[in-house]
Amino acid sequence: MAGGPLVAAAAQSTTTTTGTGPITIVNTVPAGAPAGSTTFAAAFAPTAVFPVPNIFYAIIDASGNIEAGYGTLTSATVLTRDFVIFAGVANNVAPFVPAFTPTPTGSFTNLAAGTANVYSNPSLLSQVSTQQQRYPNFTGNAQSGIDGGITEDIMQGSFAGSLTDGVGTTAVTVNYKVSSAGNLEIQLPAATVNNTGTTLSITGVPSYLSNVTTQSVPCFVVGTAAGGVTVPGIATLTPGATPTSTGSIVFQQYTAAAFPALFTATFTASVVRGTIASVITFSIH
Length: 285
Prior knowledge:
Elements: E1 11-15, E2 23-24, H1 40-44, E3 52-60, E4 65-75, E5 78-94, E6 97-100, E7 116-120, H2 122-127, E8 135-136, H3 144-147, E9 150-151, E10 153-164, E11 169-179, E12 183-188, E13 191-193, E14 201-205, H4 207-210, E15 215-223, E16 229-238, E17 247-254, E18 263-264, E19 273-275, E20 278-283
Antiparallel strand pairs: 1-7, 2-5, 3-4, 3-7, 4-5, 5-6, 8-9, 10-11, 10-14, 11-12, 12-20, 13-19, 14-17, 15-16, 15-19, 16-17, 17-18
């Protein structure tokens, strides 16, 4: 994964997506774009390997509203908006050459109906440099008074995973953020699974977060040795089989029965087990 934001020399596209969610972009350069402009896919995924996270983007909708932030290119035509660092009003000083006005709202723009222009280039990135010195927490809101605290993060977002005992599964949404110090913080959800399997893990960890050396950190889990109670545990971040495969977080539980090892990856079948709402931290150096 990249150690900082990705920005194209001159990527440009359009979208007719409305609202505050992911946008569908056109995989062609718009007519009238500056010479040398490319599509987002050509700029960030020339070999068509997705997803590509941490992409700087700027959107200007049909009503002149603007949003600049960081997102993930999940395909040639889909860009997720992971968090916003600037939102306000654009000043189109010339066609396809926008400039920001200093009236940021700090929240995702509700894109208006019509065709919006989507950019990634160093000029726009430099215009929000004063806004991007510190990045927001999971809310995606750049105003510290609302957000509750500004952190020096270079990427954050969430992924859809599965809490599994090897047989049954529970769908979970896992928040994460990557700090400028090279630490990956994963916010475990409060979730349980109860089936006939005897393991516990979260699968579906994106490759750009899990493609590191296998490492383990302390945590707490809903264990089974004592009948589904919170016990100390170990969480092991494990990469996928290939550099682009999703990884997993494999859990162990404390149990006196495992003495002298004390921790075991074996859980009791058909007893509630799972994760509690907590944050675990891995190094991604």
